From TrEMBL:
Gene3D superfamilies: Medium-chain alcohol dehydrogenases, catalytic domain, NAD(P)-binding Rossmann-like Domain
GO MF terms, alphabetically ordered: oxidoreductase activity, acting on the CH-OH group of donors, NAD or NADP as acceptor; zinc ion binding
Stored PANTHER family: ALDEHYDE REDUCTASE
Cofactor: Zn(2+)
Protein name per the record: ALDEHYDE REDUCTASE
Occurrences of domain Enoyl reductase (ER) (ranges): 24-352
PROSITE patterns listed in its UniProt record: ADH_ZINC (PS00059)
Length: 360
């Protein structure tokens, strides 16, 4: 099917901010959303997180972007309309939409509540929807989504600081659960203290784990221990500290998306320990096999989570008062925010106050 321009033929007028080319500069953009189908939820966007993936997409750094790009996949809002067959939501409910808005519903992954691993998974921003249109994300006033890909938001979870949980939160929650690194008393390392890492510390602590933050920078020590409440802190460039911690961890969640050596991290693991990569370095990392063999250790990966698990994560976060540390910004600050994000100048996640600051 030929791609439709700006969702022409769709009935509902929408307004947002979009990047038009690889400069990645965003500016106001008029487009349309589809009518609310029988299984769809329509909602007013109130807040939307700013993720590093958005930066890759607006600049086409992965070579898959189709302009214009309306970014945003950490979306919180309030339901304004529901389709006739919607069961989970009613008008007025708080709702969240994360990294995906569709999948095939027929593959093994979909049948096992792992829609995030479906070969035909549809991205919330910059994906191709079932009708051939390009999906537009949450840097916009309204959204329409199949209720299957929408998450119920508990009343006590703040929408602004809760928004990043829909991407960063599930990205670290899912591997802790899947790899069995969720038993009280276990010792888990978290590599990198950014958007993903700081939330990983919070989830791990809520699961009753002993948490060590591993960073190249001593500057993060006070933040890790005093503010986030990690139990210990390792400077990965300090050979004495790393040597003293060898063989002490049941698992490690590695959130770093830059090139970095895996050998020292594997050394920190106990026998049968697990190193799980959730950051995506642009080039392949060197994997030393000998220490894996000698300790029956595992190096694995993980990407977001299925819808059932994402709902579970949001409910767990609400029960344990877990939110991201955010800097709330107006819509017209977004280009500056992306410049700062590229320099890692944010603690730890930008969230756009779409509901109050998106002006036509």
């Amino acid at each position: 099917m030929a791609e439709k321009s700006h969702q022409e033929g769709y009935p509902t007028k929408a307004f947002g901010w979009a990047a038009r080319d690889q400069s990645g500069v965003l500016s106001p953009f008029n487009f349309s959303r589809r009518a609310t189908g029988e299984k769809d939820v329509a909602f007013k966007v109130l807040f939307c997180g700013v993720c590093h993936t958005d930066l890759h997409m607006i600049k086409n750094e992965w070579g898959i972007s189709s302009y214009p790009v309306v970014p945003g996949h950490e979306i919180m809002g309030q339901v304004t309309a529901v389709g006739s067959k919607v069961e989970k939501f009613k008008v007025g409910d708080k709702v969240g939409v994360g990294y995906m808005v569709g999948s095939c519903h027929s593959c093994d992954s979909c049948h096992n509540d792992l829609e995030n691993y479906c070969p035909d998974m549809i991205l919330t921003s910059g994906g191709k929807y079932h009708d051939g249109t390009t999906t537009y994300g949450g840097f916009s006033d309204i959204m329409v989504a199949d209720e299957h890909y929408a998450v119920r938001i508990p009343e006590n979870l703040p929408l602004d600081s809760g928004a990043p949980l829909l991407c960063a939160g599930i990205t670290v929650y899912s591997p802790l659960r899947f790899y069995g690194l969720d038993k009280p008393g276990m010792h888990v390392g978290v590599v990198g203290l950014g958007g993903l890492g700081h939330v990983a510390v919070k989830f791990a602590k809520a699961m009753g784990l002993k948490v060590t933050v591993i960073s190249t920078s001593l500057k993060k020590k006070e933040e890790a221990l005093e503010h986030l409440g990690a139990h210990s802190f390792l400077v990965s460039r300090d050979p004495d500290q790393m040597q003293a911690a060898i063989g002490t961890m049941d698992g490690i969640i590695d959130t770093v998306s830059a090139a970095h050596p895996l050998f020292p991290l594997i050394g920190l693991l106990k026998t049968q320990g697990k190193l799980v990569l959730v950051g995506a370095p642009p080039k392949p990392l060197e994997l030393p096999v000998f220490p894996l063999i000698m300790g029956r250790k595992i190096v694995g990966g993980s990407s977001i989570g299925g819808m059932k698990e994402t709902q579970e994560m949001i409910d767990f976060a609400a029960e344990n008062n877990i939110t991201a540390d955010v800097e709330v910004i107006p819509m017209d600050y977004v280009n500056t925010a992306f410049e700062r994000l590229a320099k890692a100048d944010v603690r730890y996640r930008f969230v756009i106050d779409v509901g109050n600051t998106l002006k036509i």
